[in-house]
Give the backbone structure.
Amino acid sequence: MKIYIMVISFFVVISVFYSCSNLEKKNSTVISLSDSKSTPKREISSDTEVLTKTSVNGHVFTQVLDYPEMGNAWRDESGLIWGDIAMDDTGQEKSVIQGHAWVYCNEIGAKVPSKEQFAQLVEYLGGKTKNGYRPEIIPNLADHMYWTSSVSNTDDEHYGIRFDANHGILESYLRNDFFSVRCVK
């Protein structure tokens, strides 16, 4: 009986040791793709797993792990890194006026995307295809409105351009209204 217990204990210790050593080698980032139509692919590079996603029209997005201040960030094919939605200290979505969006992005070494950059993102996400625009490739993009760095073409400097992520459109809005923040590098 003692030998039987010792053999079982030995296998338990070996199993726990093996599991722990494998956990150290794997990337701990977890990404939810519950609503995504794209299939993520993993590439192994320098002992770090890198996740890629392909949009409905074939544009590839690559997860970026080098900038933790950007959250769950993704690089598009142009090389632009799209940070996750900005959060406050309590973990809630940061909602600010346009000028504060600029300050926030500058503080983390990034910038607020221009209306042209958002328009390019919409195209990469299928905006000009028969399948249509699919914002779920970029985490937390859908269901939010974001400030751009652009101001309205009108004579009134009180209007800025915001990006409606649900519809992939840009609109003028009062610069002192509150919208979400997303930064790019």
User: Anything to note?
Assistant: The chain has one domain: 34-184.
